[in-house]
Amino acid sequence: MRYSVPHPIPYQGSKRRLANAVLSHVGRHKYKRLIEPFAGSAAITLAAASSNLFPSFLIGDALDPLIALWQDIIQSPDEIADQYEALWNRERRNPIAEYYLIRSEFNIDRNPAKLLYLLARCVKNSVRFNPSGQFNQSPDKRRTGTQPTTMRAELNAAHRLLHGRSQAVTSDFMSLFEQARPGDFFYLDPPYQGTSEGRDQRYFESVSRKRIVEGLALLNEKGIPFVLSYDGSCGNMYYGEPLPADLADRVLLDVGRSSQATLNGNDHVTIESLYISRCLKYAGSHAPLPLAHFSPQTSMFA
Ligand SMILES: C[S@@+](CC[C@H](N)C(=O)[O-])C[C@H]1O[C@@H](n2cnc3c(N)ncnc32)[C@H](O)[C@@H]1O
Fold it and tell me: pLDDT category, 107, cuts 50, 70, 90?
């Protein structure tokens, strides 16, 4: 499927396919700022910026080199594009061995262009850190990663959407909740419970369900609206435990077949939960836009 919204950072778990469904809950209300505290590839921010749904954006994540990358995209995308191209050419001269060298260098210097290169070249574009915070994902031996010219175009397109109205900060999500003010709207996509509390330490930081529950209670107390992606299922596998019903309303999204399931030759459909804060439900002007506005693969059912 081709997307018109730029998406320069390849990131497993990107919510670009859900962007229309998530943003439908913004309704017609004029908010001042969209905050994405678990931004990753910031798919929702980019989609919202391309539709001019908010006048300003705050991209947050606990992973410092990822935020440094976003700051470079906002300020000077050609510098990152040049560095990416140099890394890509370096690896072409000595495939795989250079990947491992660049990975070791990144684990010392935390250089944002190296993170971009590693994400573009690693298995399933899937960020993996060991318990001491070292990037440990292997290279994808079948694919070469995004071509430098394509990457430059994506970086520049994201820059044009974000420059002059966006900020990127390294932060734990809770401090962004604490600083939230009227006019803010949050989209939240924490690491799944199954990957952050179990043995598979996928992301750099983990987030307990207890902290999420406390954080949402704080947003509710402050009357700050949010949409949250949390638990879900794929076929008969369930991930995450649903959140308490008093925190938000739960809507289920059919996001279609997972690419992994298709590769494995089965028919599993992925269902993701969206939690919609009550302050959106009770304000008439926040009613979600009708589904006819959205792409066909994101049908919604209760
Ligand atoms: C599921 S991914 C988000 C993917 C994103 N929605 C997208 O479209 O690419 C979760 C993100 O949360 C970040 N993260 C983990 N713990 C965090 C914390 N305590 N505070 C803020 N961000 C955190 C991870 O670094 C990761 O980028």
Answer: very high
Q: How many domains does the chain have?
A: 2
Residues whose CB is less than 8 angstroms from the CB of residue 260 and which lie 6 or more positions away in sequence, other chains included: none
The identity of residue 90, as a single letter, is R
Atom of ligand 1 nearest to the CA of 63: 25
Residue 163 domain flag: no
The answer, yes or no, to whether residue 295 has pLDDT greater than 60, is no
| Nearest Cα to Cα of residue 253 among 1, 8, 17 | 17
User: Which residue is closest in CA terms to ligand 1's atom 23?
Assistant: 62
Task: Give the pLDDT confidence of 28-70 residue by residue, as tens digits.
Answer: 788 999 999 999 999 999 999 999 999 999 999 999 999 999 9
Is the domain of 124 the same as that of 246?
Answer: no
Predicted confidence (pLDDT) per residue in 220-233, tens digit: 999 999 999 998 77
My answer on whether 293 and 176 are in the same domain is yes
Q: How far is the CA of 61 from the centre of ligand 1 (A)?
A: 6
Q: Which domain holds residue 296?
A: 16-62+171-301
Nearest C-alpha to atom 20 of ligand 1 is from which residue? 172
Q: Specify the residue with its C-alpha closest to ligand 1, atom 3.
A: 40
- Residues in contact with 75: Cβ distance below 8 Å, sequence separation at least 6, in sequence order: 163
Domain closes at, from 151, 182, 205: 151
Rounded to two decimals, the pTM is 0.89
Do 47 and 93 fall into the same domain?
no
Residue type, 98: E
127 and 255 assigned to the same domain: no
Rounded Cα gap, residues 57 and 36, in angstroms: 8
User: 44 CA distance to ligand 1 centroid (A)?
Assistant: 13
How far, in Å, is the centroid of ligand 1 from the Cα of 177? 15
Same domain, 35 and 85: no
Contact 197, 206 (CB under 8 A): yes
What is the whole-number distance in angstroms between the Cα of residue 107 and the centre of ligand 1? 19
Ligand 1 binding pocket mutation candidate from 70, 195, 203 (most atoms within 8 A of CB): 203
79 falls within a domain = yes
